[in-house]
Amino acid sequence: MNGTDDFYTVQPKDAPPEMEEIRKLLASNNLELDDQIEVFVVSRRQGRLVACAGLDHYTIKCVAVADDVRGESLSLALGSEVVTLAAARGQFHLFLYSAPHNLPFFRGWGFYPLVEVPQRVVLMENSPVAIKKYCDSLREQRRPGRTIGGIVLNANPFTLGHRHLVEQAARACDWLHVFVVKEDAWLFSYADRFALVAAGVKGIDNLTLYPGSDYVISRATFPGYFLKEKMIIDHSWAAIDLLLFREYIAPALGITHRYVGTEPFDPVTNNYNADMKHWLRHAASAAAAITVVEVPRACTRGTAISATEVRGLLAHGDFSRIKELVPTTTLQFLEARFPLDMAATR
Amino acid sequence: MKVMKEAIAGTLESSDLLVKVAPSDKGAREIVIQSEVIKQFGKQIKRVVAETLDKLSVSEGSIVIEDKGALDCVIRARVQAAVLRGAGSEETDWGTLS
Fold first, then answer.
1. Is A1 in Cβ contact with B12 (below 8 Å)?
2. A257-261 and A291-295: which strand pairing?
3. C-beta separation of A52 from A62 below 8 A
4. What is the mean pLDDT of chain B?
5. A179-219 pLDDT, tens per residue?
6. Domains of chain B by range and CATH?
7. Would you list the DSSP string of A109-145?
8. Residue among A115, A45, A51 nearest A82 (CA)
């Protein structure tokens, strides 16, 4: 290691004086500061900030090294620092975003390309075998048939709308593969959401339910999704998640159709549905096209059911209305978890 | 000995290597080696890694290595460190590792 390089970490939430320097270094490399980064590793040389790498949970982004210090050992030392920092934070399976032309550079960090949005961005991971292992495990679940469906649910929480979507898809398909988004980023934990989906899809026999994975709508594959409440979804980041689905997950399971609910309320999710049609079906890709089927949302009293509404009603303890929107299994869970005297009353 | 949890040892810098270990979902010993000098020294690196794991009696675990042209003694040290971290073992008989 070059003894003159001094690495240390900076947390953007503390708004340290370094943030302006980081922003400048990124800008000179045509990168923008990413809001989701929890911690930066930075290096100074003679007082000047010359290198930075950001970590958002288990995804490395915003990596930049000043022009005049390239070609030394600094960049590899930076890579070692950020990988070690992630390990100290309990993150070992790492992902990384890079501009496509820097791909060879990050191969030197032990990262391997997964998917690329041409001329824009490439997603890499720090294992040459992890995605293959995951796909091999999926392949064991393949089912015969001409029409094989796929659905990805967040289900925060599982409603009659989700039930309707799954039922319609299962009816149209020989077999249906359902994934639940894994991250713990919402009101309901992953474990609770998964349990409610499992209970809610009971009785549908031509279906396999999968635990979530880092490869299906995760902080790595679709960081913008986790800003949804703030109404920002970056299109190119939806593309990464969708291309990963098209190029790895769908071929492993033989998925021919992806099912999704129509989105009457939320323009962000509506854009996502449009992106889905583009990246799963129309965009150029080595993988076969997947048909996207938008299923009209189930309604009660003429209004489409949404999990957002259920959460809103929950805040007011309005269980009589919630009862019309969710299956019994979800209702029982909500009543046990949010007893009336605890819910905000009005 | 089994790898019970994820762990790393080493760096990505020249003449070093980064060793990542994790529990094996297949209950087997799986080794993946990437090296800048795999064509010249691949066989030798594989042998050093296997011998080091044998001496530690590692029967289960996924071991992924990113080698930057490390010497054998460095490879041994990094593999030992990663495995011992991943096994969460408190007591180590260093004499058996030489």
1. no
2. parallel
3. yes
4. 92
5. 999 988 888 999 999 999 999 999 999 999 999 999 999 98
6. 7-89 (3.30.230.10)
7. TT-EEEEEETTTEEEEES-SSHHHHHHHHHHTT----
8. A51
Which domains occur in chain A, in start order? 6-128 (3.40.630.30), 132-337 (3.40.50.620)
DSSP H stretches of helix in chain A:
18-27, 74-88, 103-107, 130-139, 160-172, 190-200, 235-244, 250-253, 267-277, 307-315, 319-322, 328-337
Total-model pTM: 0.91
* B76 interfacial to chain A (CB closer than 8 Å): no
Q: Are the beta carbons of A109 and B14 separated by less than 8 Å?
A: no
First to last CA, chain A: 62
pLDDT at residue A229 tops 80: no
pLDDT of residue A231: 44
CA atoms within 13 A on the CB side of A73: 16
State the complex-level ipTM: 0.89
The residue in chain B having the minimum alpha-carbon distance to the alpha carbon of residue A92 is B6
**Tens-place pLDDT, residues A114-164:** 999 998 899 999 999 999 999 999 999 999 999 999 999 999 999 999 999
Residues of A in contact with B11 (CB under 8 A): 1, 76-77, 80, 84
CB contact under 8 Å between B11 and A1, yes or no, is yes
Q: Are strands A6-10 and A39-45 parallel, antiparallel or unpaired?
A: antiparallel
CB contact under 8 A, B13 and A110: no
The kind and range of the H/E element at B83 are helix B72-87
Contact A77 B66 (CB under 8 A): no
Tell me which chain B residues have a C-beta less than 8 angstroms from the C-beta of A128. 32, 34, 64
